[in-house]
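Cross-check.
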Amino acid sequence: MSADTGTDKSRTLLLMRHAQAEEGYGVTDYDRELTDKGRRQAERVGRLLSERGYAPDHVICSAAKRTRQTLDGVLGAMGPSVRPEIDYAETAYLAGADELLELVNQVDADASTVLVVGHNPTVAQVAASFVGSEALVAYSPATVAAVELEVEWLYAAPGTGAGSILD
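Predicted model, tokenized:
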């Protein structure tokens, strides 16, 4: 495999914003929970990913409560056969686009599908760098984009793949 392309193996990056969360009165932003609607949204995304044939083998999830709950709903709806390695990343909570991509760059080369569950505006900014600027306005809660990368995880960066927002 050449170090700059990684073309002999397909790699899919799934970029998901957490599902709808409570406003957070009386709790810290980090500890905000999903609403009932948010739980349904997360399960819908899990079903959508399954229907489209996506099965993440690695997950980078912000350690905030609402992102962990979103991931639980997504994986629960995907069924027991989907058991990815999960990295609950404290740094993903406040990460900017560059920092979030650095987390992706650290994923083991053997992974073929990586799901990132994070927060806006960062997730929308990263998605926009692959799918176009429409992601900046279309990234409501529980939105997910699928990006087919042309390179190994180590080299994932804007311009190294293309994709679309799933619906």
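The domain at 11-166 is CATH 3.40.50.1240 (Rossmann fold). The beta strands are 11-17, 58-62, 85-89, 113-118, 144-149, 161-166. Passed to J.P. for a second look.
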